[in-house]
Amino acid sequence: MSTEWFFEYEIQINRPGLLGDIASLLGMLRITIVTINGVDQGRRGMLLNAQSKASIDRFEHIISTMETIQLTKYREPKLRDRLAVRHGRYIQRDLDDRKTFRFVRDDLGLLVDFMAEIFKQDGHKLIGIRGMPRVGKTESVVAASVCANKKWIFLSSTMIKQTVRNQLMGDEFSNQNIFILDGIVTRKSSDERHHQLVKEMMRMQTIKVVEHPDMFVQHSEYSIDDFDYIIELRHTPDEEISYEILEKNRGNNDFGGFGGFGGFEF
Description:
30% of the residues lie in helices and 26% in strands. The chain has helices at 18-28, 53-63, 79-87, 108-119, 137-147, 183-188, 192-203, 213-216, 244-248; strands at residues 3-11, 31-40, 43-50, 69-75, 92-93, 100-104, 125-130, 152-154, 156-157, 163-164, 178-182, 207-211, 229-234. Strands 5-6-13-7-12-11-8 form a seven-stranded mixed sheet. A four-stranded antiparallel sheet has the order 2-3-1-4, sandwiched between helices. A hairpin with a 5-residue loop joins strand 9 (156-157) and strand 10. Helix 3 runs antiparallel to helix 4 and helix 4 crosses helix 5.
């Protein structure tokens, strides 16, 4: 039975033929290179496929004796490893909160790929997305749903026009669907049937995506700890994600103009 491994090394002495030597060693051990790419400055990552664990162990032992490279990662591939080899760099992860992943708008391709891989999984997953207006949150979720060959259902949204759903019909109840809601719109809604629908959806064994999760959990039975992933999307790396403008309009419940937010595409 074949096994797949992720191998990353840092070049210590860059000389002609180094990659060829590694590839030749893998070939002699009957280990196939599935994908190869630079994953960081001075580092290269590979996805490997071997017919036996013994071949992988022998390769690890030999490679650890080479002075020209330093072994940095050698393990069964994680999602971040696969995406790093595919896109040539790692997803930025919060050092204190390991379930928080950070992207900028230039990373939309990587973000869509990351979410699509999560969307392909079965069962319950609760994903929160933080970001300022017009940064591409909703568009990225929809694009990832398409990549994962999943149908997306808006329970609340302002992408095209304000959406507040209070019922689902037919195959919309399928656990193969991606449910998307805007935490601000849902929190401000006075429609009890909408809130009941959200509770029903949260109990389903399916993927749920909540934009503005911090606003969604306010005055609710849910907390940020309930989320499996938190994604932060910014226009620039140093952009502050601030809800000050939302707090200033908290008392405005005129949903005809979306509480003063009609000019924004959240």
